[in-house]
Amino acid sequence: MDVLNNLILGFGVALHWSNIWYCFVGVLLGTLIGVLPGIGPIATIAMLLPATFVLPPVSALIMLAGIYYGAQYGGSTTAILVNLPGEVSSVVTCLDGYQMARQGHAGKALGIAALGSFFAGCVATVLIAGFAPPLAELALKFGPADYFSLMILGLIAAVVLAHGSLIKAIAMIVLGLLMGIIGTDVNSGVARYSFNIPELIDGVGIGTVAMGMFGFSEIIRNLEQGEEREIFTKNVTGLWPNWKDIKQAFPAVVRGTMLGSFLGILPGGGPVLGSFSAYTLEKKLAKDPSRFGKGAIEGVAAPESANNAAAQTSFIPLLTLGIPSNPVMALMIGAMIIHGIQPGPQIMTAKPELFWGMIASMWVGNLMLVILNLPLIGMWVKLLTVKYDYLFPAILIFCCIGVYSISNAWMDVLLAALFGFIGYVFIKLETEPAPLLLGFVLGPMMEENLRRALLLSRGDPAVFFTRPISLVLLIISAVLIIIVALPQISKKREEAFQE
Amino acid sequence: MKIGHPKNFWGGVMFAVIGLIFAVIARGVPGLAFIPGYTMGTPARMGPGFFPFYLGMIMLILGIIIAVNGIRTDGGKEGQLEKFHWGPVLWVLGAIVIFGLLLKPVGVLLDGIVLIVVASKGSHDFRIKPVLILAVCLTIFCALVFVVGLKLPIPLCPDIESLQSAVGMCRA
Which of A116, A439, B72, B95 is within CB 3.0–4.6 Å of A305 for a Cys-Cys bond? Predict the structure, then answer.
């Protein structure tokens, strides 16, 4: 069987001692930032991008991927013990996890979260191995018009599934697209929006934007708030759930994994959506929904499995279509390009060791996370007691050195400060910055495909409606917009995100 | 006129203004030499100005819609603008800007300490002694990890020559 051979190849790469080490570093760092509130995977990956320059591309991507799914593990620890989501995707875990901790079952909650995540990670790895090849084959048939429509669909799905105002999110995407085309235009050689600043002629780096908007502005936001935390550190005992707990939680884990895997593949989907939906589903299915919010074990098991599954399956569109489904994947594309890899369907055939090595490393990383985290929980808990006043300088200096090192340009540091300010204004105007980052990555790709499509059709825009693949994608996009614009549904959508 | 949802109103204004700026720069202003504009081209042969101009226009329209909705809808308390905390904004961003400007001439060892001390002024209780200790430890740690360990080309120590030329510029 092909998949089997490929997986063997992948494990051969992933189990190379150096890759095991980078995978370990990745998941450890990921867990660390997942545990710490106030810094997310986006800022961390951007921060560590320069540190991966010296590595071979496979090792670099293995490490960066490890950070991402490691963060999903770590986020749950903070959610359960401090009632503070370490990551957005752990928001719902707070609801029941914290209640379990208050009732003295903190260990059990942490244990089921870790085991559920591991199960989800295994399933998602198999899913990627199975789904990615046929999808990549399909993607090879895509012409420029189809790609353009696919990006439209991806961007629209991203705003439909995100929370907050729809039209603001679309405006943010457009802003991202515009920022993405700053720099030299490949077709004409004209430097656009560069104002003769040499650093801008090459365009703005995604690391710079991400660090400013997700790193610096978060720091300012956290500083203005001040902090109060109540931590349950004493009663973290009995990590292993007993048989009864497992029997109660297992169906929830399976459902969470399935739902999360599916939502992760969707453009615009990802861990956040996965965990929210899984929690809602469990509450709907439960015989006694009133138990939820008071320490129901399913309320921890399902969202934690779902966010981990989704974190991994969101690699499918990245690796097969070369299109990011969420901001972290947008950053992964940036990382790939820096390492000289053009993301897209050709990766699988051109660089099988990279593709399958990365997939195999995800399983290895998940195993490490379980082995690592259960004994290390005590250490993570100690970290939570560090005051933010001492934490943020560390984040700050890492970010600053990170921004500088991406292209050894001090101008980038100033630009990142500017984006930090813009990001803070966005926070104050309640505008989510995530869609901007998606648009930012897709901007140049979209323009390029639009140009090519219209060049081939001699300027006739009908090409987007006559090619079947493109037509189907556009119809789906239109349907999505109509559905969300309907008054009843938009009300429901708000309720769902309020919960 | 009362604005019902100031957050959305000002958000819309921001989008509209940015969209307009992008569109105007793409199109160019006749008579203004510093905004020459980019070639628009035709749909079949798009020039560099085509895509950004229309995107800018789309953003302008979206911004106007958001702003108009912001006037019409009543956001209640949720819609009011929150306080803008200039303290942390200026200290943290100022520290980053200083870091960027000084990195080449003074090197990361000194610059890192400056960064942390200045940024920490933005936190709630600032005490110089623990901050200084933290700054020194973190900076040495970063220098070890990034410069010694990962061998990234970051200047470590003050660069006398560029310092002198900087001073020379001040005097000239």
Answer: A116
A215-224: per-residue pLDDT in tens? 888 888 888 8
> Which residues lie below 8 Å from residue A292, measured CB to CB, with a gap of 6+?
A95, A96, A279, A282, A283, A286, A298, A299
Please name which of B116, B89, B96, B76 lies closest in space to residue A427, comparing C-alpha atoms.
B89
CB proximity A405 to B under 8 Å: yes
Cβ atoms within 10 Å of A137's Cβ, excluding its own: 13
Per residue in B62-81, pLDDT (tens digit) is 999 999 988 888 877 777 88
Please report, as a single letter, which amino acid is at residue B116: I
What average pLDDT is seen over chain A?
83
**CA separation for the pair A131, A10 (Å, rounded):** 16
Burial B56-89 (b: 16+ CB within 10 A, else e): bbbbbebbbebbebbeeeebeeebeeeeebeebb
Cα A47 to chain centroid distance, Å, stands at 15
| Both structure tokens of A104 | 């003295």
Question: Is the CB of B146 less than 8 angstroms away from the CB of A54?
Answer: no
CB contacts < 8 A, A to B, total: 189
Interchain CB distance below 8 Å, A167 and B84: no
A201 close contact with B: CB closer than 8 A: no
Average pLDDT of span B111-122: 90
Q: Do B135 and A393 touch (CB under 8 A)?
A: yes
For A15-26, how does the pLDDT look when each residue is reduced to its tens digit (9 = 90+)? 888 899 999 989
**pLDDT over 70 at A238, yes or no:** no
- Closest approach of chain A CAs to the CA of B171, in angstroms? 24
Q: Where are chain A's structural domains?
A: 2-498
Q: Where are the domains of chain B?
A: 6-79, 86-171
| A178: its two tokens | 């515009």
Q: What is the pLDDT of residue B47?
A: 86
* CB-count exposure of residue B133 (10 Å: 0-12, 13-18, 19+): exposed
Q: What is the pLDDT at residue A418?
A: 94
- Would an 8 Å CB–CB cutoff place A21 in contact with chain B? no
Mean pLDDT score of chain B = 85
Q: Which residues of B touch A190 (CB under 8 A)?
A: 38-39, 48
Q: Cβ–Cβ of B63/A171 closer than 8 Å?
A: yes
Interchain contact B147–A (C-beta under 8 A): no
| Cβ atoms within 10 Å of B144's Cβ, excluding its own | 11
- Whose tokens are 């981990």? That residue is A308
pLDDT at A489: 60
pTM exceeds cut of 0.90: no
> Measured between CB atoms, does A216 come within 8 Å of chain B?
yes
pLDDT, tens digit, for every residue of B3-49? 788 888 999 999 999 999 999 999 888 877 777 888 888 888 888 88
Interchain contact A408–B (C-beta under 8 A): yes
Query: How sure is the predictor about A499, in pLDDT bands with cuts at 50, 70 and 90?
Result: very low
When CB atoms are compared, the residue of B44, B66, B139 closest to A171 is: B66
Residue A33 has pLDDT above 60, yes or no: yes
Q: Is B106 on the interface with A (CB under 8 A)?
A: no
Helix pair A327-338, A434-456: axis angle to 10 deg: 60
Residues A51 and A339: their CA atoms lie apart, in Å, by 12
